[in-house]
Every structure is written in C-alpha cells, then in structure tokens.
Design a protein that fits this description.
The complex is a heterodimer. By secondary structure, chain A is of the alpha/beta class. Chain A has a six-stranded mixed beta sheet with strand order 6-9-10-3-11-12, with helices on both faces. In chain A, strands 2-1-4-5 form a four-stranded antiparallel beta sheet. In chain A, strands 7-8 form a two-stranded antiparallel sheet. In chain A, helix 5 runs parallel beside helix 6. By secondary structure, chain B is an alpha/beta fold. Chain B has a domain of 61 residues. Chain B is 21% helix and 39% strand. Chain B is built from seven helices and 23 strands. In chain B, a hairpin with a 2-residue loop joins strand 3 and strand 4. The longest helix of chain B has 23 residues. Chain B is globular and about 70 Å long. The chains are: A alpha/beta, B alpha/beta. At the A-B interface, helix 2, strand 7 and helix 3 of A face helix 5 and helix 6 of B. The complex binds adenosine-5'-diphosphate (ADP) and magnesium ion. The site of adenosine-5'-diphosphate has 11 residues of chain A, from helix 1.
Chain lengths: 249, 435
C-alpha cells in the first residue's frame, strides 16, 4: 500500500505541494488528474527522490517503509518505477547497456542472480515484441534521436523489464498517437494484478479509456480537491477543471 | 672535446648542441648542418616560451625549463618490458633511438626504418614542413634530433597497420630525447599508424617528437597517438601534415599520461577535396596538465575538416584546447567543424579553451563550439531512478562522454587500442576513487 499523508514540498523555495493525502491499496491503479502546473510532476519527482524537490512536511510510506528516507536507487530496488514525463537523453549510453545495468542493479538489490548479456538479450527481445517495438531500439543511445512517442514507449519498455511493484506514470500518454497510446496502455494493463500498484498521472481522460482506474483524484494547486470512481474522469473531460480551480482558489 | 651531457633550461640545451654539433647524425651533410644551425638560432632567440607568448598563454613550460636533463644512456640489450604489440609491424624506439633488435619491420611492402641511416637521401624533405622559427619546440627538436622513423609508401601501396612504440627507460637522471619522424605516402597509398608512448612508472624525461607528414593525391593516413607517458614525464609533440588533393589525414590523439603534455598539430589542406579529421580525448587527473593545440589551414577549395576533442578532468588537473582554423581566400566551399567539450569532475580542475576562426573566403561553412560542464544532475537522477547506484551512474556518464570522443574512429585496430586505453584509465581512476 502506498500511503501519502500531509505531504508538502517546495521547489527553489516555492511551495508546490500543499498537503497531499492519498492512499493507494496494493493491487489498485489510481489516476491523478489536474491542470498544468498543479504539481503532478512535482509529486512524481518527490516520490522518486529527485534532488531539489524538498519535502517540508508529511510522510510517504510504501508497504510500511518510509519511502522518503531512501535514496532514489533504493526506492527503485524497493519496487518503485517512475515513467518520466520528459524522458532524459543519455548520449553515448547504449540503450541495451542502460537497461541491463538497471535490471541487474535491481536484481542484485533483491538478491536475485544477474543476467548475462545473452540472457538479457533474450528477455529484452521478448519484451520488445510484446510492445511492438523494433529491436534496433536497443542499439541506439538512450532516448537520443527518439521521437516523442518512442521515448514514451522506451519508458514502458523499461517498466516491462524492471517489473516494478509500484509504478508512477507521469503523462505517459501525452504526445502519443492512438496506436502508441494503445501499446502503452496494453503494457500497463499486462502488469496489472494483485501485486502491481500504480499511480497514473494524466492531463486527459483519453488514457483512462484504456487503463481503467480504480479511483481518480484531482490535483489542483498542490492539493487533492476531489476523489471518485472512474466516472469522475469523464465528468472532468466534459466540464473541465475550471469549476474545481475556482473552488480551490 | 667539450662533452655536455647535462642540460638545464634553454641555455643548457644550446650548450649541449654546441658540444655535440660535430657528432650529431648527418653532421657532415651541409644542408642538415645549416638546418640545425638555423634551428639553434631560432631556439636561442625564443628559448622555452613563457606564457607571454600568445601560443603558450595557457601552458607554462617553466617546469620543463627548470628541470635538468641528461642525454639518454647508450642503449644496451637489456630486458625491456615491451607492451603487447598492437599490430604485426612495429618500430620500437627506446629513449628516442631506433632499436632494430626490438622492431619487426621485415617483409613490409614499403620502406620503414631508422631515419638516421638515410639522412643523405632526405635533403629538401627533412625540414620541409617544420617551422623552427615559429615553434620553439620544433627548433629544439631540429637542433638535437638523433633519429626517428622514416616511412615511405609508394603510389598505391596499402601499408596496413604499423605500430610506432616510443619507450622511455627509468634512469637516475631525467633524459631528454627529440625524435624526428618523417612520413610520406605516395598517391593513393594508405596506412594506419598507431603511435604509443609509454614508460615505467616513475620515469622522468622529456619526449619532444616532431612529425613531418606528406600525403600525396588520394592518400590516406590514419594516425593514432596513444600518449600514456609516465606520470612525471613531459611530452611536447608537434605534428606537421600537408595533405594534397583528395587525400585524408586522420589524427586521433589520446592524452592520458604525463605530467605536462602538449599535443600540437599543424595541418595544411593544399589540394581540392582534401580532408582532415582531428579528434582526441584528454583524460586528466591529479596535477596533470595537457594542452591540445591545433592549427588547420584550408588553402584549397572544397576541403573538409572535422575536429572533436573531449576532455575529462579530475583532481587539480588542467586542460587546454586551442583550435585555429584559417580559411584562405582560395578555399571556397570549405566545410569546417570544430567541437571541444570538457567534463569537470572536480571543483579544483580547470579547462581553458580558445577557438579561433580566420576566414578570408566567402563561400564557406565553418562552425565551432565549446562546452565546459559538470555531469548533468538530471541524467544522474534518471539512471539512479532505474536502480543504478550513484557511483555507477556517474561512471556510466563519464564513460559515455569518453566513448563519444572515440566513437568517430572507424579504423578497427586503432579503435580497439583506444577503447582499451580509455577503459584502463577509467578503471584506474575508479580504483583511486574507491580507495
Ligand atoms: N525545477 C523547477 N524549478 C522551478 N519551478 C518548478 C520546477 N518544477 C516545477 N516548478 C513549478 O512547480 C509548479 C508545478 O509544476 P509541475 O509539478 O511540473 O506541474 P504539472 O506536472 O502538474 O504540470 C509549476 O508552477 C512550476 O512552474
Ligand atoms: Mg507535469
């Protein structure tokens, strides 16, 4: 279970998260929706432990563990995965090397044996096929020269390989055409099960047609202002955030 | 005879020259004696340049001028520790002297051997490119060189891969040696030359090589320079290359060793469609100082030049890049590119870079850029968020930066040698960091 209580955080001295309370029971997929600038990515970065995103109050626990006390790599080893809204380019770092290093780091942390190059390649090929991605993606530098859609799919490929127990997807749907969107959604849905928990951050309801969430939360100006079932997403799509923003102000 | 074996400062080297003048190789060849005398005059006039000299603004030769150097000892057939060969053919120089007993040059389809044996045939060629009046280290070399590698590839010859190994020995007193290498490729000839300079740890010496390289029409020379001198050594190298129409000079220099190093390259593209690629990596730690200075002259139309230099700096090291591109009026349709990047891994490391473009033609594509920075925290975080520990994440990004410099090298044997050298250097640094 992911439990966020009274979480406040600031960036460069500016308060962004202003008291977030959010609980995601293990095995559920929750959506976080909200207008631009409401703090969705900030929440994602705080969960992943990015430097410069200073927690000023509250707590986050994952299966009873204090997530905020862990280094980013320790959070990954504990099962957390963040799909970045803007995946980072790593010139000169081969995608295959990157993926294998990450996978083996996490396997090592979990006490599992590391995969050699051949074993890794077999696994990576299988995951690529499942995501309808070309094998040459492994040979390129991480995200360098990738189209927007390729970058997002590369995030999903990483997730499919690292098999997190807690995934935070930050606007993984933005900039995708309908086919790519379906591939991404299928990738997430394939992981769903009693041991997979996810926070799906999105600006639009579109993705939630494909990944149907258990709950929807609306984030406005650093606070969750409403929570509800999947129908809340459709309501927001119809009526927009304006009413909620006015309420929050 | 006044035998001067110890030299200190410019005066010391000049004094040595006076003492050796009559006994230097080729002393009885009037053209060579004149060349040496002129060089001595030039060196007397300039001495070791100070930082007030524009070309030496960022590199202080004071430590070289202040050190005393002896003549290398007479070679003996001792058990030398040679690094494993990088190619089938190998020319070995120990303390600047050719060692036939350690070299393997038999059966080559071209002339390769000791320059000192062939000086009588080199009138008008030796010294055709070097400019002692402008470059004081070339003056010092011209004045005192005793030997070097002579390579002559006839028209159309494929020379394959040849290694030029320069080994310094550790002796009580630091030695200075000034090899003069002369390379000529005939029309359409090709060769990969892998030059490696190294020495046992702790050796102290000055290695002051000068290369004169002439490439005829359509020839192609890939020149890899692996500078892995001993930690307390000085290497001040000057390369001159003249590239004719349609010919290509490819230079990749790895500066990884030495206490104070200068890699100075002068290339003139003198025929249409000549090309030059000058790339390199400088890997610096501790108190090291490494300077790459390039001077590229586009003298003919439609020539291409590409330069990429990446420098990684740790500890209190200092890196320098000076890159001058001169495009003469005749050099229309010049395509020139220069990039120089530095990665500072320590707050005490420093990088100076000075690009300089002088363009006298109007139809020219010429660009340059320079970046100096630390590791990108966003990249480090991205890797860590995937479970990769911080140390490994940083190492991966440094490796990528180094890889980027080497990746343009298409020649397989050279690429392997460079990859091994870079990986070895980084492994040693990581060990140092872990310790
Ligand atoms: N690195 C940063 N530096 C300064 N301000 C930031 C930074 N990241 C986010 N912000 C500010 O925090 C607020 C929330 O941003 P963000 O979390 O990216 O919102 P969302 O993802 O919901 O669009 C915005 O006002 C934004 O300008
Ligand atoms: Mg965002």
């Amino acid at each position: 279970m992911l439990k966020i209580e009274g979480l406040t955080a600031e960036v460069e001295g500016k308060p962004i998260l202003k008291g977030i309370d959010l609980t995601v029971p293990t095995g559920e997929v929750h959506a976080v929706m909200g207008p631009n600038g409401s703090g969705k990515s900030t929440l994602a970065y705080v969960l992943a432990g990015r430097e410069g995103y200073a927690v000023t109050g509250g707590s986050v626990t994952w299966d009873g563990r204090d997530l905020l006390a862990l280094e980013p790599e320790e959070r990954a080893a504990a099962g957390l995965f963040l799909a970045f809204q803007y995946p980072v380019e790593l010139p000169g770092v081969g995608n295959a090397t990157f993926l294998r290093t990450a996978l083996n780091a996490i396997r090592r942390a979990r006490g599992e044996p590391e995969l050699d190059a051949m074993q890794f390649l077999r696994l990576a090929r299988e995951r690529l096929r499942a995501l309808s991605m070309p094998e040459e993606m492994l040979k390129r530098s991480v995200n360098v020269g990738f189209s927007g859609g390729e970058k997002k799919r590369n995030e999903i490929l990483q997730m499919a390989l690292l098999r997190p127990r807690l995934a935070v997807l930050d606007e993984t749907d933005s900039g995708l055409d309908i086919d790519a969107l379906r591939i991404v959604a299928d990738g997430v849905n394939a992981m769903r099960g009693p041991d997979f928990t996810a926070l799906v951050i999105t600006h639009y309801q579109r993705l939630l047609d494909h990944i149907v969430p258990d709950r929807v939360h609306v984030l406005v100006d650093g606070r969750i202002v409403r929570s509800g079932g999947p129908e809340l997403a459709r309501e927001l799509e119809r009526e927009g955030y304006a009413a909620l923003q006015a309420q929050a102000a | 005879m006044n035998l001067v074996t110890h030299a200190k400062g410019a005066a010391g080297f000049l004094h040595r020259f006076e003492g050796l003048r009559e006994r230097l190789p080729g002393a009885r060849l009037p053209w060579l004696a004149a060349l040496r005398d002129e060089a001595a005059e030039a060196f007397r006039a300039q001495g070791f340049p100070t930082r007030r000299v524009e070309a030496w603004k960022y590199t202080d030769l004071q430590p070289v001028a202040a050190a005393g150097f002896d003549e290398p000892l007479t070679p003996v057939d001792d058990a030398l520790d040679l690094p494993p060969a990088r190619a089938g053919a190998r020319a070995v120089f120990v303390d600047g002297r050719f060692r036939a007993d350690l070299s393997s040059l038999d059966g080559l389809p071209f002339a390769a051997g000791a320059l000192a044996q062939r000086l009588d045939a080199l009138a008008g060629r030796l010294g055709a490119l070097a400019r002692p009046a402008e470059e004081p280290m070339a003056a010092l070399n011209t004045m005192l060189f005793e030997d070097g590698l002579l390579l002559e590839l006839p028209e159309g010859a494929d020379g394959g891969v040849l290694e030029l190994l320069s080994l310094a020995t550790a002796s009580e007193r630091p030695a200075a040696f000034h090899p003069r290498h002369l390379i000529r490729l005939g029309r359409g000839a090709r060769l990969t030359l892998i030059e490696a300079a190294t020495a046992p740890e702790g050796a102290r010496y000055l290695h002051n090589p000068v290369f004169e390289i002439e490439l005829a029409e359509g020839a192609r020379l890939t020149h890899g320079r692996l500078q892995e001198e001993a930690a307390r050594a000085f290497q001040l190298a000057t390369v001159y290359a003249r590239v004719a129409a349609g010919a290509t000079y490819d230079n990749f220099t790895l500066n990884a060793g030495g206490r104070l190093v200068r890699n100075e390259i002068h290339v003139a593209l003198v025929g249409p469609r000549a090309a030059c690629h000058m790339n390199g990596a400088q890997l610096l730690a501790g108190e090291q100082h490494a300077d790459t200075t390039t001077a590229l002259e586009h003298a003919a139309p439609s020539c291409t030049s590409r330069q990429t230099y990446n420098t990684v700096l740790m500890g209190r090291s200092r890196g320098v890049f000076q890159g001058r591109i001169l495009v003469r009026q005749a050099a229309q349709k010049t395509d020139g590119y220069q990039m120089n990047r530095a990665l500072l891994l320590s707050p005490e490391a420093e990088m100076d870079s000075k690009p300089q473009l002088e363009i006298y033609a109007d139809d020219v594509k010429c660009s340059h850029g320079a970046t100096v920075g630390e590791l990108d925290p966003e990249q480090v975080f991205y890797l860590r968020s995937r479970g990769i520990p911080e140390g490994r994440a940083r190492a991966m990004l440094v490796e990528a930066f180094l890889h980027e410099a080497v990746e343009g090298v298409t020649d397989e044997p050279l690429r392997r040698a460079l990859d091994a050298a870079v990986a070895g250097w980084w492994a040693r640094q990581e060990e140092g960091l872990a310790a």
